[in-house]
Specification:
Elements (H helix, E strand, L loop, with lengths): L28 H13 L28 H16 L4 H7 L2 E3 L7 E3 L3 H13 L3 E5 L6 E6 L1 H21 L7
Antiparallel strand pairs: 1-2, 3-4
Helix pairs in contact: 1-2, 1-5, 2-4, 3-4
Length: 176
């Protein structure tokens, strides 16, 4: 070891029982969203409104979603994105769920997704106490949504449950 340098051993985080802890960043997004979706379906605060079966998810879409559980899947995805990018607002999330609009013979252009879908899901996540609106230090301006400790706990709990199956599917994941 060189004098003046601190040597840090990378062994991973461990919980109170000595088991390695898993964060939502450590597992594939698709697997995490599936696990969180199942947890959110059991929550009474997060339910699809009656207009959800006929609404398009953006102007770049021609038809509404065909999956019957698309609302809870989108809610799980939004919860993950708020945890990753928070504080984040409705407009930025709508841009993330946007796409290319077909303009016929003219070149395609990027358009945003439905802000109403994003806003409604964020309100439901607020009611379930998984997210909260963060304000600046003076309390005069809203900065966007951030995940609460309950939301963080949900994400980490699901990630630790799916981590073994994710490591079987991708053996290189064990390094992280």
């Amino acid at each position: 070891m060189t004098p003046g340098r601190v040597h840090i051993r990378e062994e991973g985080r461990r919980d109170a029982l000595g088991d390695t802890m898993s964060s939502f960043r450590d597992v594939p997004a698709g697997d995490l969203i599936e696990g969180v979706k199942e947890q959110l379906e059991s929550n009474d605060s997060i339910k699809a409104p009656e207009w959800a079966e006929i609404v398009k998810t953006g102007t770049h879409r021609e038809m509404p979603p065909v999956q019957p559980d698309w609302w809870s899947r989108r809610a799980a995805s939004i919860l993950r994105k708020v945890a990753l990018h928070g504080p984040i607002g409705t407009n930025h999330l709508a841009q993330m769920y946007g796409g290319a609009r077909n303009r016929g013979v003219r070149p395609n252009r990027a358009v945003t997704g439905s802000r109403n879908v994003v806003r409604t899901i964020l309100r439901q996540l607020d009611a379930a106490e998984y997210t909260v609106i963060k304000k600046n230090a003076a309390g005069t301006k809203e900065l966007g949504r951030v995940v609460t400790p309950a939301g963080q706990s949900l994400l980490d709990k699901v990630s630790s449950e799916i981590r073994p199956s994710a490591e079987e599917a991708a053996p290189g994941l064990g390094k992280y």
